[in-house]
Structures are given as C-alpha cells and as structure tokens.
Amino acid sequence: MKKKIRKKKRPDWDEYFLGIARLVSERSTCLRRNVGALIVKNRRILTTGYNGTPSGITHCEVTGCLREKLKVPSGERHELCRGLHAEQNAIIQAALYGVDIGGGTLYCTNQPCSICAKMLINAGIKEIVMESGYPDQMAREFFDEAGILVRTVAGRKK
C-alpha cells in the first residue's frame, strides 16, 4: 500500500509576491501608513521599496509627521511629506543599479497615488497588483488610459 503524501498549500504567485510586499512594508518609517512594493519580471524580483524619508534625512518618527500637523487628508498634497513612496523607491533602486524594469509588474500593498502612477507609466510597468485601494481616482484613470492592467488581490489568510 502506498503512503499518501500530503501536499501543503503553496501560495500562488500573486500571494507570494504580495506577501513579500507586506514584509518589505515593515521597513517603512512613515507614521501614517506602511507601504511596500516590489517590481517583478518573469517571476523574478527586480527591486523593492518602502515608504520613508530619503537616505540621510531624519525620519518622521524623530521630526513628527508634517501631514498630521497640517491635517492633510490621505491622497492629497503629496508634496507636503518628507518621505518617498514605496513605488518611487522601487523605481529609484532600479535606476541606481541599472535594472531594466520595463515590462514588469508592480506588486504593492496599496494602490499607487497619481504621482507614482505617472512614474510607473513612464518606467514601462505593464501591470499593477495590489492588496487595497487608495483615495486617488486620478491614478486609476491614468492607468486605464495608459492600458496598464490593475488588479486587486486579497492577501493570503493565515
């Protein structure tokens, strides 16, 4: 009699990469929202990014959050922030290390804002896979107009 082998449930690719994006988000230094992103091509991780202040700049946990002080609603006045978004950091890492991200997929914990949407479009990203939305309708309109596929995938339950 053959012994029955129990197979564990492996995450599908979306679950796998979104799980890594959640882990990357734990490095965030933002006081309002922790966001993680990674750019993938051919099922290979090319770059990662999380939201926080640029290298050499004092973190918001020391200075306090300017957006909180000014009571700026989420999704508005992005320039009033010391930090970079996770998507921006992922793109910057690619540029810094000469990694071609054109044709890649962005996995992120939250929908990119309209500023990041414009950068992702010009960087040649072809698909966005995210866990949750963000109050920025203009970003969705940009992705639609640019022909970028946007999918929301629920995170894997433990």
Instruction: Give the strand line-up of the largest sheet.
Output: 2-1-3-4-5
Low-confidence stretches: none
- Total helices: the number is 6
Main sheet attributes: strand count, strand direction, barrel closure: 5 strands, mixed
What integer is the average pLDDT?
92
Number of strands: 5
| Class by SSE composition | alpha/beta
What fraction of residues sit in β-strands?
Answer: 15-25%
Separation of termini? Answer: 34 Å
Radius of gyration: 17 Å
Describe this protein's structure.
The longest helix has 13 residues, at 13-25. The protein is globular and about 70 Å long. 33% of the residues are buried. It contains six helices and five strands; from the N terminus they run H-E-E-H-H-H-E-H-E-H-E. The protein is an alpha/beta fold.
Tags for this entry?
globular; 5-stranded mixed sheet; single chain; 158 residues; alpha/beta
List the helices and strands and how they pair.
Blueprint: H1 13-25, E1 36-41, E2 44-50, H2 60-63, H3 66-69, H4 86-97, E3 105-110, H5 114-123, E4 127-132, H6 137-146, E5 149-152
Parallel strand pairs: 3-4, 4-5
Antiparallel strand pairs: 1-2, 1-3
Helix pairs in contact: 5-6
Describe the structure concisely for a colleague:
By secondary structure, the protein is an alpha/beta fold. It has helices at residues 13-25, 60-63, 66-69, 86-97, 114-123, 137-146; strands spanning 36-41, 44-50, 105-110, 127-132, 149-152.
